[in-house]
Amino acid sequence: MNEGRKEIIQIVFVLVAFVFLLKLFFIQVIDSSYADLADTNAIRKDILYPVRGLILDRNGKLIVYNNPEYDLLIILKEVDYLDSARFCQVFDITRDELNKGFKSLYTDIRNRRASELQPTPFIKQLSNRDFAKIQDHIDEFQGFYIQARTTRAYSSTAMANAIGYVSEITRNQLENDSSNFYRQGDYIGQSGLEAYYETYLRGTRGVRYQLRNKDGIIKGPYKGGRYDTLSVPGQDLYTTIDLDLQEYGEYLLNGKSGSIIAIEPATGEILAMVSGPSYDPTLLTGRNYSSNFMLISNDTNKPLFNRPLMAQYRPGSIFKIAQSMVALQEGVITQGTRIPCNRSIIDCHGEHSNEDLRGAITHSCNPYFYNVLRRMLNQGVSNNPYEDTRIGLAEWDKHMSSFGLGRPLGIDLPNEKGGLVPSPEYYDRAYGGRPWKFSNIYSLAIGEGENLVVPLQMANFVSIIANRGYYYTPHLVRSVGKTGLPLPQYQEKHLTSIDSAHFRVAVEAMERVVESGTGQFRAKLKDIIVCGKTGTVQNDPLPDHSVFIAFAPKNDPRIAVSVYVENAGQGARAAASIASLMIEKYLIGETGRPIIEEYVLRGQFLY
Amino acid sequence: MDWITVLLYGIIVFWGWLNIFSVTYEENQFILDPTINSGRQLIFIGSSLAIIMFILIIDMRFYETFAWIIYGAVLLLCIIVVFTGREVGGNQAWLRIGSFGFQPSEFAKFATALVVAKYMGTVGFRMDQLRNQLTLFAIIGAPMLIILLQKDTGTALVFSAFVLVFYREGMSPFLILVGIGVTIIFILTLLVENEYILFGIIGCVWLTLLLLGKKKRKRVTIITLAALMLMGTIKSVDFIFNNVLKEHQQKRIRVLLNPDLDQLGAGYHVYQSKVAIGSGGPYGKGFLKGTQTKLKFVPEQSTDFIFCTIGEEHGWIGSFLVISLFVVLLFRVIFLAERQKSRFARVYGYSVACILFFHFTINIGMTIGLFPVIGIPLPFFSYGGSSLWGFTILLFILLKLDAHRLQVLDRV
Questions:
Q1: What is the ipTM of this complex?
Q2: B247 shares contact with chain A (CB less than 8 Å)
Q3: pLDDT at residue A31 tops 70
Q4: Is the whole model's pTM more than 0.80, yes or no?
Q5: Domains assigned to chain A
Q6: Of all helices (H) and strands (E), which one includes residue B101?
Q7: What count of CB pairs under 8 Å joins A to B?
Q8: DSSP states of B161-230 as a string?
Q9: Which of A1, A3, A10, A20 to mutate to test the interface with B (most CBs of B within 10 A)?
């Protein structure tokens, strides 16, 4: 049984040796291409970084563009000898920094995170000016190369939060990148529009392979450029923003904390979105990104917090308009319903005693709306008051929802908050299972209570009124690339559950506010009918927040505004002034009331 | 004492040492400098001589008697390394003692050989008994598994070389052929894009077998079943490959099978290796004049890809010499194995030959693009303390046993 096996094994040995020698013969003796290849062997891989898409305002003005940026790369293998003194002089770094750079390079090579044969970043993010300085001297340093890429530049300091910032992709993000598109060293939008539209803005990386001989001299393209790909620039974003209006808003909000949002009601396009306090977006580009980021994020005024989207406030008296609409739709009141201003149930202010709906809105009568809500929630569907309130509240919720309240609207920015419209389930949880009815929750009536709204929702809300009953989801980008269209969800018209006819009352009431009510001193404009509503949101123990919503002109409205100024007292003052200045600027093109402007600018309400 | 083998050993080790020097050669370097690889290798060589002395002095019965203990101890070390090992180059196979590292898995090779030899040498062992076969596979399977846990796939695969030893000792070739067959099917499935071509081939083979052989029902059923099973396997391999494996895993396997693929990414290693070897021409560029190796274009040059130095600096002639040296060594080892009187010694000898053969084949095959890149060294040639010691011990135990082969008859 074992005979011949030894021979078979021996044959196997010889066979293998023979095959090897044959292949070797072929490679070494017959095929001469290897000898040539050896000389021009090294393949140098250059990454061609794409140009990121531009961001422009609605009139084509550049808001965000790109500046060239340069990385100094090193191919360690080629660095024969380095004149460190000269290097430090040319590149303007200290000996220490140079040594540190090499040390971390060696570590990376040891950990296989870098190769000594391939270009590795050594000094990152040299500016245009740095580049000009060193350009003539780069040849002195064998093994060092310059790679060009781009970084963000801003034509104005406006809209820092909404635009967002761009920085190098983090390890975490790389690991979670299921599409495997990103490589280490790529830039990625981290917040705002830069993040939301990242896939459109980023473009595609290109690559170029070249043959390099052992002296480091480029000998030409590898395989005729067969593996090369061009970089594809990112798509530009044409925003809905009017840069002039935006900058004016930032100017007005200086020294204050709050938000200004201006929307074109018929389309949902956001004309301006100001978050104060803000920061200079240029701080988050370039070599000082990390240290600046620390400073900005630790600022107690929270400039990175995008107030229009994220700040949640109690709605205050503005909410009364919404209440009116719902009540009219449900039929529990009519325009003519009069309710006495009984200040014993709930406090009120101003000279009025027995208003109809229009008057109640104009004068912001609290007892009136107390009653309205009671009628709304307790419609007698059930004999049990608790059950009845539940049913009423559920209906009320549905209406409020159709106004876009209580949930994020879906703006094209990340991290939008949804506010809160309390549901029966909410109160069940809040009261821990104990029963509740209208008398527990009446503060909803005047917009103080468990409701929360976000300034963006308020701007959208006043757009709805301006449109008499519908809205388009507010958005910042009207055209992605050259398509001329925004993303599909912004082309959809949303109807509220309220009949268009009911809005007339609200519009007229709001007209009265500006004409002769609380808004008359600051919000009224010559020749243009402005409709508005003040709101004052309690903020114990600090001063109240000042709130104002408005749209103009009354017929064929072109702009709807919501203004929140934190800790600035009554809404009629700071917020109304800002709102009307914004309207004036947009509709007329310039402002003609320097006293009002002065008043606003002087107000510094940061705490 | 078989001086021919000792001579061969010496030549290979010395030549290897010179080549290691060439890899790291720079101007004005002293070959004995202990901070560069060649200097260190000299230390390893020196210590190997000490080990050889040791092996030759010890009573030859030691090896057979303590086979299991040695095996157990080495396996234990390997297990420890799994948990405490330092990660080097993608696997976790190194144990550190002070500033000094060594790889226990290199010692598992001769330890397993000893145990296999001892087991097969016991009275009453029969190759055709299933129980014995299973034990044998367990003996080589255990170190394989542990080393796989170290993520050192290459070294784990070395243990499959023992199958040849089993074959020599009487195991039916059927198993080997099935193993080879399965591997071929697997490779073919991944290589051939269109699975219907494979189906077609199977279909033809099935038809041929059917028509040529006896038409007994049992035979027909078996052949048909086999054909269907094959097709099923092919289908599932395809499915798993395309749907279960991730993109980069698929890529790695594709490169394994087609080393010319992706020269700039995963195939870079082999590409550079072939360029280095190929550029040596018939006569080589001369000692210390290898540009590719000198400029470090070939990664892992002192260790797994040391053959590149030979190819580049000594050309085809050099390659021929080295390969011949190894073949002569292998034949000599077999010759020694065959002249042993005890089964233990003979099996051990064949184990030595097969282990050396496996390394030789895969390592050189790797450098010229015939085998996928799995990291295993070229015995006696590659830089590395653990590897040199491991192989030295492997070989010299055999020489010791051979020197006393006539004394075996005293033991009964």
A1: 0.81
A2: yes
A3: yes
A4: no
A5: 45-239 (3.90.1310.10), 243-283+306-602 (3.40.710.10)
A6: strand B100-102
A7: 106
A8: GHHHHHHHTT--HHHHHHHHHHHHHHHHHHH-S-HHHHHHHHHHHHHHHHHHS---HHHHHHHHHHHHHH
A9: A20
